[in-house]
């Protein structure tokens, strides 16, 4: 009788597994085991991610403010240049005498005026006394011939007196408006005595002292005289051709720029070249790029410092926990389990730093905006990406220590 025996298979022990819940619990326990060290380790990531959020937030906020101020001032300013066209050598001044009135008839114009720099003879200075170069004389101070519309378009703030008007311009009155710094240098402190400035040997009564302008700040460093008076005393422009400053209502600048040459010189519109305000989006992009490149570099440096700190701390933890690693390996933990465990711990440190850094960066943006009375602008994508950036920093920093931990021989680790 033949018996058939079927050999029984020896049960094989199942491979060890590391559940996700256990992995997270181990990572949290490793981080909380030394809270002070973990906090200091995450500090670099906090600074890096915080700088990242603050940079992008402040850049966006500043760009928003640039748009507002640009629209309020620069987007309502048009310049018209006198080129003379093909007749530039023959026609010294292309603007008509009633240029101010012609421009103000255009719908959307608030004020407009013609101006140019007067060429003085060599040796002529501006002084407050009629004879000699007395104390307070100022040399190389520009004299600007400007119609009354220039002052209206520039929006000056007067500390004393007022601007000259069409009466002074039409009557060729010898009056002047000066900046407060020039008045101080000339020793003019009050207009009650009707002081005069002498341009060469020609006296001009000072009727206004201004300390600020909304447009054309270089006017504060010039002596302004009426256009007709300048033409009568010094003639038409010689070195520099005339220009026109136009102040428009918001949204009308492009239209005014298109209509200005034909409105001023319907017979020769090619004599004049309008310059509309630049696109505010280009300015915002340029400023945003400059700020971003500068401060994002700082954020990168902080992230690198944070990554080095996490890598150093994780590597020290590997050395300190060699016995624990050996015990885990002896109980069945595989190399990849050790790798994932330490990667998770370093990633947790990075994520913690990313979350705290996002909060710090957001608080900085809000605080600066509140101090400057701005509206804070932070993109939702930035807030979502910042913690992920911290997590990525922690994972990258933990690659080498985790690999080092997985290479520890179990027997050697148990002997320590």
From TrEMBL:
Subcellular location: Cell membrane
A Pfam match: MacB_PCD
Transmembrane segments: 43-63, 294-319, 348-371, 377-400
Membrane topology value: Multi-pass membrane protein
Keywords linked to the UniProt accession: Cell membrane, Membrane, Transmembrane, Transmembrane helix
InterPro entries for this protein: ABC3_permease_C, MacB_PCD, Macrolide_Exporter_MacB
Residue intervals of the ABC3 transporter permease C-terminal domain: 297-410
MacB-like periplasmic core domain ranges (all copies): 38-255
Family (UniProt): Belongs to the ABC-4 integral membrane protein family.
Name of the protein described by the UniProt record: ABC transporter permease
Organism: Streptomyces sp. 900116325
Source taxonomy: Bacteria, Bacillati, Actinomycetota, Actinomycetes, Kitasatosporales
